[in-house]
Design brief:
By secondary structure, the protein is α/β, with parallel strands linked by helices. It folds into 2 domains: 219 residues, 3-Layer(aba) Sandwich (Rossmann fold), CATH 3.40.50.300; 70 residues, YebC, transcriptional regulation domain (Alpha-Beta Plaits). 36% of the residues lie in helices and 29% in strands. It contains 11 helices and 14 strands. The strands form 3 sheets. It has a 6-stranded mixed β-sheet with strand order 6-7-8-3-9-10, sandwiched between helices. A 4-stranded antiparallel β-sheet has the order 2-1-4-5. Helix 4 packs across helix 5 and helix 5 runs parallel beside helix 6. The protein starts with a strand and ends in a 7-residue tail after the last helix. The chain binds adenosine-5'-diphosphate and magnesium ion. Magnesium ion binds next to helix 1.
Length: 312
């Protein structure tokens, strides 16, 4: 059994199914990525894991403890790094951590070493006395991580920890996650940045509209159909018939469009290229660029949903 077990969880807001029957498990010591575009339901799922939001249906167990039945015990096992930093701006970094540490049950005798260690993990020892309202966005994010870690939880839950921060802080956060992983921490990491998920995670659940659309180890997902190649052909326009016309070419596994880009999944890009060209030109469309790539989580997502993961 996994350290975290999520079974058939549902949450609706009015008529909107924010989380629509999600199941997954996270093993001890694993970094599990929840990848999905904005609005996929990642934060809603995490809020239910953290006991901040009641699910409509399903069950969540952390270390064998059902969060609906024994919420306090389950919550103690978790460290939470919410999407919006939960910090007191007029207090110093150290004071914020003392507060969160105490809230999380650390005794007065243990609080100072715990604060020091948490600051060290996120590289803010030298700013311990600095007021949070004078911190950059990236520093606040790092302090937020320290607050989630301070009571040495069994599972750390991180919700899009790198959105909207400077590249240096981003790098620091990614390296912090790597280090925590090396130390054996179990982490759930949500993001809509595919490269972060590919870099950090052992396994990934790819979600869209509240549902899990693909799940597996990164290696499994990317090697699914191991020898596949992806051809990206940028056209001057994209008539509706193109994907279908190209998909009917022998040797083409799948063809799907995204705006003016035609994506073709095939075992032999060079072999199908002339026929693809013929089909495209035959429909009166010109080609402006061709690229042959390996499939990525991005292209898998696109293939499943016809949508891009990124904003805009
Ligand atoms: N408090 C809320 N009330 C109504 N709808 C909500 C609320 N929170 C989230 N939603 C909706 O639920 C869906 C999932 O949102 P969210 O979990 O925040 O997605 P993500 O974190 O993947 O961007 C979205 O359509 C969002 O608009
Ligand atoms: Mg979110």
């Amino acid at each position: 059994m996994g350290l975290l077990e999520v079974k058939d969880v549902k949450k609706t807001y009015g008529k909107r199914k924010a989380v629509d029957g999600l199941s997954f498990s996270v093993q001890e010591g694993e970094v599990y990525g929840l990848l999905g575009p904005n609005g996929a339901g990642k934060s809603t799922m995490l809020a239910m894991i953290c006991g901040l939001l009641k699910m409509d249906q399903g069950s969540i167990c952390i270390g064998g403890v059902n969060i609906s039945k024994r919420p306090q015990e389950a919550k103690r096992k978790l460290g939470v790094v919410p999407q919006e930093p939960a910090l007191y701006p007029t207090l110093s970094a150290e004071e914020n951590l003392r507060f969160w540490g105490t809230m999380n049950g650390i005794s007065p005798g243990d609080i100072l070493p715990a604060v020091k260690k948490a600051l060290q993990v996120v590289g803010l020892e030298e700013r311990a006395r600095g007021r949070v309202d004078q911190f950059s966005g990236g520093m606040k994010r790092r302090l937020n991580i320290a607050a989630g870690l301070i009571h040495n939880p069994e599972v750390l839950v991180m919700d899009e920890p790198t959105v909207g921060i400077d590249p240096q802080s981003r790098k620091h956060i990614l390296e912090t996650v790597k280090m925590l992983k090396r130390q054996g921490m179990t982490i759930i990491y949500t993001s809509h940045y595919v490269e972060e998920i590919e870099y950090l995670c052992d396994r990934v659940g790819i979600m869209d509209s509240g549902k899990m659309i693909l799940e597996g180890t990164i290696a499994e997902l990317l090697s699914n159909g191991s020898e596949y190649q992806q051809l990206r052909i940028i056209l001057d326009r994209m008539p509706k018939e193109i994907p279908q016309a190209v998909e009917s070419i022998p040797g083409v596994e799948r063809a799907f469009s995204q705006e003016k880009t035609l994506n073709i999944v095939t075992l032999n890009a060079e072999r199908i290229l002339p026929s693809a060209f013929e089909a495209i030109v035959g429909l009166g469309v010109s080609v402006s660029e061709i690229k042959i790539t390996k499939p990525s989580l991005e292209s898998l997502f696109l293939e499943e949903t016809g949508k891009a993961l990124r904003d805009n």
